[in-house]
Specification:
- The protein has helices at about 15-30, 45-55, 60-70, 95-115, 130-145, 210-215, 220-235, 265-275, 285-300, 315-330, 335-340, and strands at about 5-10, 35-40, 75-80, 120-125, 150-155, 175-180, 185-190, 195-200, 240-245, 250, 255-260, 280, 345, 350-355, 360-365.
- With about 375 residues, it is of the alpha/beta class.
- Strand 9 and strand 10 form a beta hairpin.
- The radius of gyration is 30 Å and the shape is elongated.
- It starts with a strand and ends in an 8-residue tail after the last strand.
- The mean pLDDT is about 90.
């Protein structure tokens, strides 16, 4: 989608001028029209923004729009006030508990914005406490999409960077006047004023997380832990070939390769799990699965004395145990075991068998190309 709804997303502390500085760079210099401004802040940050930036329709934000020919009514501004664990709005973030609550709040807000497929986010980490900038960076790293970007605002000369009187370069002006803290004045030629937004590269983790998982986790720390787990899996997860004619599993990780011989019934069960996914080994039998396993067996192996009983509840249970024993005997290392073994989750109807290995890591070799299509 090319016609994104552009969003300026910022952590806001006591320097609201980062908003007009960012708008100047994006809208005036880059010709990117911002439709929404989303500000994560505290009650004190909102008060300062209203007092210094908006001023009931008369502040520098509205002056910027007027000076550069933009309609302020076409830019929607939304405050996201950080709350504690009880839902109370925070005036500041000081205690460890408030920091944890702020992290969760950043996660929820970033998730809501990035879940909108029609949006493109320009996130700036120039404002707010250092922890707020860190949380914005980290939540963008967890949830940011390909079209989203992360920036830091750079203002030159240094004498006006974060200066309380500077919000944007004035058009049609030769110079701008500013006051020092001692009330003395200094002037800066407008031609010398530069506002840049340095893009900050970041690793986008969203693609390794399932959409349902992203939406279901409310705690920032839990999503970080889950992401780390997925990264660990990606690092150690082996490649697997299920070679039905050779009756072998061939597993390869970064350093080693293994061959695990299996009997025909075991190969059929394992190949079925790889291609079709989890199966319920119901106590009363599962006729559809038995039929499918028999079909695989008849295509691959010309062995007599194989019938429906060969794939009944008890037989599949025994086959699973033999598969796992052979894997343990061949491979040392719990991480590889976890990926390759047939796992069992028990319930009242019987155990459900499954593999933890990602489908894209598995290749099945068969005498019949259409057998697993």
């Amino acid at each position: 989608m090319e016609n994104y709804r552009n969003i300026l997303f910022a952590a806001l502390g006591t320097t609201p001028q980062i908003i007009t500085e960012s708008l100047y760079h994006l809208m005036v210099l880059q010709k990117i029209f911002i439709r929404e401004i989303h500000l994560i802040t505290t009650t004190e940050g909102k008060r300062r923004a209203e007092e210094k930036l908006f001023q009931n329709g008369r502040g520098p934000f509205y002056q910027f729009c007027g000076d550069y020919g933009f309609s302020s009514t076409e830019i929607n501004t939304c405050y996201h006030i950080i709350t504690d664990g009880q839902g109370n709005e925070l005036a500041d973030i000081r205690t460890p508990e408030e920091n944890h609550a702020a992290a969760d709040f950043f996660l929820a807000t970033t998730r809501a914005l990035t879940n909108r497929p029609d949006t493109r986010i320009f996130a700036t980490i120039a404002g707010g406490r250092k922890t707020m900038s860190a949380y914005l960076y980290l939540t963008m790293q967890l949830l940011g999409r390909d079209q989203d970007t992360l920036y830091h605002v750079l203002v030159q000369p240094e004498s006006i960077e974060s200066h309380f009187q500077f919000f944007y370069p004035l058009p049609n002006a030769a110079e701008m006047k500013f006051d020092n803290r001692d009330k003395s004045a200094f002037r800066v030629p407008v031609a010398d004023i530069k506002i840049d937004m340095a893009e900050i590269p970041f690793v986008r983790m969203r693609r390794i997380l399932q959409p349902g998982v992203i939406d279901s986790i409310a705690r920032f720390s839990e999503l970080v832990a889950l992401t780390q787990e997925r990264l660990d899996r990606a690092q150690y997860e082996p490649e697997l070939e299920v070679d039905l004619p050779a009756q072998k599993l061939r597993a390869t990780d970064r350093q080693r390769s293994f061959e695990i011989p299996l009997a025909p019934v075991e190969m059929c069960l394992y190949a079925y799990l790889c291609k079709r996914g989890p199966i319920l080994n119901a106590k009363g039998g599962n006729p559809e699965i038995v039929t499918e396993l028999l079909r695989i067996h008849s295509q691959e192996y010309a062995i007599a004395n194989v019938n429906r009983k060969s794939f009944d509840h008890d037989s599949l249970q025994q086959a699973r145990s033999r598969i796992n024993r052979k894997i343990r005997q061949t491979i040392s290392g719990s991480l590889l075991h976890d990926f390759l073994m047939v796992h069992s989750d028990r319930n009242r109807s019987g155990p459900t068998y499954s593999l933890k290995l990602s489908p894209e890591k598995i290749r099945i070799t068969s005498t019949d190309r259409g057998l697993f299509s």
